[in-house]
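Severity: low
Component: inverse-folding endpoint
Summary: output formatting inconsistent between runs
Steps to reproduce: submit the following structure tokens with default settings.
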């Protein structure tokens, strides 16, 4: 969609702000686990090992895999607005219930169920937001909106530093209830439906009204009147190669990002070579780096292209993490390396999302995002478990940091290859209605 300026309009920024606010809670609910791991390992009666804690961490990402794979297709079929509202209610309720878990089994089940909503939100919110901004601004808006994830993580780390001694780890999960009482009612009242989805489902008058209300012109991508693109539409030519590469790059990127988010406080806290204060400050540095880097990666995505910028960002993350293996003796270089890692890992994923929204037509966009992010959850699922195994095996901080640095380097290579594949994949673009018809 592009904007027109005549008449009094509702700002398209409203959609981005609402979705961004929900993503902040998504990020908090996801990353809060990393802030509470040390407390959970010491919880009386639970008797958790690092490997078992890694398994619990992986359960949330397994739920996200289910949510991301299913929500993209469901949102394109049932409506993006309704899917966003449902995911918000879902992950808020089940994250809040984690505060009342009586043991590791019930806690792990609740994290898995909450993960379904967490995973379903991001592809749906990005697909809806992309429709309300011009194509040339999608890298900027997608990256800016996705800064909500590390902002949520930063809030979790700050709350852990200041409030966890008082509210304990259970209170950290109860905070999620705020989304139910504050944010969800606002989204119900203000969030619009996708005009493209409305038009495809035989409601052109309502679609036109929303376009007029927000000052939008029609989507430049092909928008037919038939069924919405199924998953098979993005897994056949001319989209097959790009879809697979996007998914593989997302796997490597999410492996590094969520692996660090899960284990960083536990890894660096007990290691005397990183005795720089409360270990939650390391997680805070990682997330603040991702927040600050959102502006940089958004600018780079619009200036140099989302995919090229993503490859450079992933390489920067690999270099920053590898530097930590030199065990610098002062705080400044450690925090600087973590900031660079935050910029690189989270920034890379934001730019991948922006590249996907630009590469696919409107009717397949939610499905393509759901596939890439859903497949990427494989990396997120494996990372906490792999980190726990390395800790139990005695490899500690060095083994984990090397593993996450390698994942970022792999992502950089995959994205460099994707840049070439995307450039030649759809010239000219195959009409979507011919793909859907199969």
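Observed output (run 2 of 3):
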């Amino acid at each position: 969609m592009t904007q027109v300026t005549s008449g009094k309009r509702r700002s398209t920024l409203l959609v981005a702000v609402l979705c961004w606010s929900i993503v902040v809670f998504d990020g908090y609910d996801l990353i809060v686990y990393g802030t509470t791991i040390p407390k959970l390992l010491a919880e009386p009666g639970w008797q958790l090992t690092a490997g078992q804690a890694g398994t619990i961490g992986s359960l949330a990402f397994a739920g996200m895999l289910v949510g991301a794979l299913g929500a993209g297709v469901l949102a394109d079929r049932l409506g993006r607005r309704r899917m966003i509202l449902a995911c918000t209610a879902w992950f808020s309720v089940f994250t809040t219930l984690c505060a009342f878990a009586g043991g590791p089994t019930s806690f792990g089940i609740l994290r898995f169920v909450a993960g379904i909503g967490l995973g379903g939100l991001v592809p749906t919110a990005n697909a809806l937001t992309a429709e309300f901004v011009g194509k040339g601004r999608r890298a900027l808006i997608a990256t800016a909106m996705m800064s909500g994830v590390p902002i949520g993580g930063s809030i979790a780390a700050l709350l852990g530093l200041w409030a966890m001694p008082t509210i304990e780890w259970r209170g950290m999960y109860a905070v999620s209830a705020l989304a139910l009482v504050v944010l969800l009612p606002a989204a119900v009242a203000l969030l619009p439906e996708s005009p493209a989805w409305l038009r495809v489902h035989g409601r052109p008058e309502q679609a036109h009204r929303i376009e007029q209300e927000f000052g939008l012109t029609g989507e430049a991508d092909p928008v037919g009147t038939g069924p919405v693109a199924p998953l098979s539409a993005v897994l056949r030519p001319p989209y097959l190669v790009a879809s697979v590469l996007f998914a593989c790059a997302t796997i490597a990127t999410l492996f590094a990002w969520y692996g660090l988010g899960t284990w960083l406080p536990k890894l660096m806290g007990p290691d005397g070579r990183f005795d720089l204060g409360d270990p939650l400050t390391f997680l805070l540095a990682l997330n603040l780096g991702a927040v600050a880097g959102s502006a940089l990666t958004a600018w780079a995505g619009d200036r140099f292209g989302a995919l090229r910028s993503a490859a450079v960002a992933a390489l920067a993350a690999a270099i920053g993490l590898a530097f930590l293996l030199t065990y610098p003796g002062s705080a400044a270089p450690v925090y600087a390396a973590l900031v660079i890692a935050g910029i690189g890992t989270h920034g890379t994923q934001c730019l991948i999302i922006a590249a996907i929204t630009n590469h696919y037509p409107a009717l397949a966009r939610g499905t393509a995002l759901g596939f890439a992010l859903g497949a990427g959850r494989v990396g997120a699922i494996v990372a906490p478990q792999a980190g726990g195994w390395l800790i139990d095996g005695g490899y500690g901080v060095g083994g984990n940091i090397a593993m996450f640095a390698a994942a970022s380097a792999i992502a950089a290579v995959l994205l460099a290859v994707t840049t070439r594949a995307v450039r030649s994949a759809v010239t000219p673009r195959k009409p979507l209605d011919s793909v859907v018809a199969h």
